[in-house]
Design brief:
With 308 residues, the protein is an alpha+beta fold. The chain has 7 helices and 15 strands.
Length: 308
Amino acid sequence: MLLVAVLFFLASFLRIVSGADWCYQSQVTCNTTCAGPDTWGLVSEHCSRRSQSPVNIVTRRALQDERLTPLQLTGYQETFHSRIMNTGHSVKLDLSSKMRIQGGNLPATYKTIQLHLHWGKDGGPGSEHLIDGEQFPIEMHIVHIKDKYDSLSEAVTDRTGVAVLGFFFQESEFANKKFDPIIKALKYIQQSQNSTTLREVSLDMFTPPQKNMTKYFRYEGSLTTPDCAEAVVWTVFEDTIPLSRKQLSAFSQLQFSNGKPMVRTYRPVQPMNERQVYYSRGHLASVSTVLLILAALVPSALSLHTTA
């Protein structure tokens, strides 16, 4: 009997470490054998290392870096057709390599490979990164790899082989019509591995106006799902994308691979350890604007005082 129990334990352990059975905390129950975020180190040793993502970005500890100029986005305005899929863990939109990003002190030019999202439950907290402890309803990741690589698996062998743009979503009183193609597609991909096609869409539809993308945070981290490879240059934007409560809640109709509601699809924040978060000079520009306004007001105030 003891031998049977040992063999059962070993079989369960091997299923977990195979990488096929990682899951989010919302999937973990007493009847599941999947590895929740606390045990992702069993799935991949990378998940237990010291430069993991996501993190809580503490703004007062971030250092301004003048090299973090606005990113140059190429092809984001071009329309395309693409497959959108329920992966069993998230929603993924496949992207061709026609879209590229460079500048902003990125070490190379990067090309797009996919877009996916993380969310909470019925529009509740669900982002992976936090800003000063605040968790947003949804976080979208646009994943890029260096131009010289042909796949994500090849890019993660490079410490800066992957560049991810992270965008927060915030609840709005009104629906965001630009997101209708994704929201409407969700009803066709409720079950794991289901997919459909989005037509005549562009990345420009799903991101903030480029004039609002000057304020962002930068740090080096990892993929936020196993194998958690520490090969990501993260760019997390401050400006949020508005969605109505109904649109935010639509993602909760999807199902995990085990049929349970796909909710709270985020990894808990990881320790910063010795890493530093930097912020773009777009933030500094805002401060400079305030100082210029104050400088203009001071002479006016002195003039009024003299007159009185």
